[in-house]
Amino acid sequence: MSNNLNTKDKKKSNIGVLIGAAFIMATSAIGPGFLTQTAVFTESLKANLGFVILLVIIIDLIAQLNIWQIIGVSGLRAQDIANKMVPGLGVFLAVLITIGGFAFCIGNISGAALGLNVLFGLNTKIGAIISCGIGIIVFSSKEAGKAMDIFAKVLGVGTLLLVAYVAFRTHPPVGEMILRTFVPTKVTFLPLLTLVGGTVGGYICFSGGHRLIDAGITGEEHVKEITKSSVLAISLASLMRILLFAAILGVVVNIGKPLGTVNPAAEAFRLGAGNLGYKLFGVILFSAGLTAMVGSSYTTLSFLKTLAPVFDKHTSKCIIGFITICTLVFLIIGKPVKLLVLAGSLNGLILPISLGIILIASTRKNIVGDHYKHSKLLMYLGYIVVILAVVAGYMSLGGIAELFK
């Protein structure tokens, strides 16, 4: 009888972790940059952005399914897989992820601070300190993994509901959205590359997968569960993108006023739902910044775990230190625009490297075992995504050159 109860408890615990991992990945993607990018491209492409979002969802799914399945089957983190293939390659990957994660964590703290500024008029530096404090509380818990899962779920669902409300208020042209999703009148390549990088670039695609490893949900017997969690993660991030697109499109089409360049997403919410909408955006920005900060710091440290024993032995303390350092950098620099652009470029560069490593690893028996057969179709589609991501990285480097002229 007790064995049956233990099995049920373990299954229930696994479901909680699988959903939590999906939310960690989704909320890592839905950061301040996610909000701004969607607003900018909605204003320029209008309903045609639906077609780009559809392609982004397909590409995200291909990248995510490949990465999570191979990480899950092998039970190895991405850097360990890379080191097994070529000694030192994992160290190189971990350094890239750490630089990108550090820059994005600063940006996410900045976003959370701006959210508090919108809500309460707080100085952004005070807002950053408060946001840092919340992150420290999450990782100070004795069961930090469980606390992080709950934190991501609550704020993730709250953010989705708030954006859905604003989308309802702005009355987007749903028929036009659906039509242009499949029959666009204008298509540009840059939004596709930018949105893909913002959803599965850099550390983001590994955030949930590494969480599953920490929870011990690995091996070929868990492939179906891992796949479901991966699809849920992309579905959540995609739902948020669609709702945000609908909310902003309603403003662009029905009101017709320019969103400006300072904070286009905030302006869209203000125009669409008045002062209440503006305040709701403050809540959304704060939640997005906070959850993305937790996701970026956790995933960055997961890449350092197996490279130095101290990171594995004192994981929570190291994450707290990481968040604190990022906050201090924000307090000193203020708005790290150049650093964020650099991180965006790294996202474009990291995805083809990391996904390429995973795809090659999917054929290695010393990594996936003797019996596991990875889907050939998924692998070939993955290589197409790698090619697209290489182009994305090249275009990002062009943006860096312009920035530092």
UniProtKB/TrEMBL annotation:
<dbReference type="Pfam" id="PF01566">
    <property type="entry name" value="Nramp"/>
</dbReference>
<feature type="transmembrane region" description="Helical">
    <location>
        <begin position="15"/>
        <end position="35"/>
    </location>
</feature>
<feature type="transmembrane region" description="Helical">
    <location>
        <begin position="339"/>
        <end position="360"/>
    </location>
</feature>
<feature type="transmembrane region" description="Helical">
    <location>
        <begin position="276"/>
        <end position="304"/>
    </location>
</feature>
<feature type="transmembrane region" description="Helical">
    <location>
        <begin position="316"/>
        <end position="333"/>
    </location>
</feature>
<feature type="transmembrane region" description="Helical">
    <location>
        <begin position="89"/>
        <end position="110"/>
    </location>
</feature>
<dbReference type="GO" id="GO:0005886">
    <property type="term" value="C:plasma membrane"/>
</dbReference>
<feature type="transmembrane region" description="Helical">
    <location>
        <begin position="47"/>
        <end position="68"/>
    </location>
</feature>
<feature type="transmembrane region" description="Helical">
    <location>
        <begin position="150"/>
        <end position="168"/>
    </location>
</feature>
<dbReference type="GO" id="GO:0005384">
    <property type="term" value="F:manganese ion transmembrane transporter activity"/>
</dbReference>
<feature type="transmembrane region" description="Helical">
    <location>
        <begin position="230"/>
        <end position="256"/>
    </location>
</feature>
<protein>
    <recommendedName>
        <fullName>Divalent metal cation transporter</fullName>
    </recommendedName>
</protein>
<dbReference type="GO" id="GO:0015086">
    <property type="term" value="F:cadmium ion transmembrane transporter activity"/>
</dbReference>
<keyword id="KW-0472">Membrane</keyword>
<keyword id="KW-0812">Transmembrane</keyword>
<dbReference type="GO" id="GO:0034755">
    <property type="term" value="P:iron ion transmembrane transport"/>
</dbReference>
<feature type="transmembrane region" description="Helical">
    <location>
        <begin position="380"/>
        <end position="401"/>
    </location>
</feature>
<feature type="transmembrane region" description="Helical">
    <location>
        <begin position="188"/>
        <end position="209"/>
    </location>
</feature>
<feature type="transmembrane region" description="Helical">
    <location>
        <begin position="116"/>
        <end position="138"/>
    </location>
</feature>
<dbReference type="InterPro" id="IPR001046">
    <property type="entry name" value="NRAMP_fam"/>
</dbReference>
<keyword id="KW-1133">Transmembrane helix</keyword>
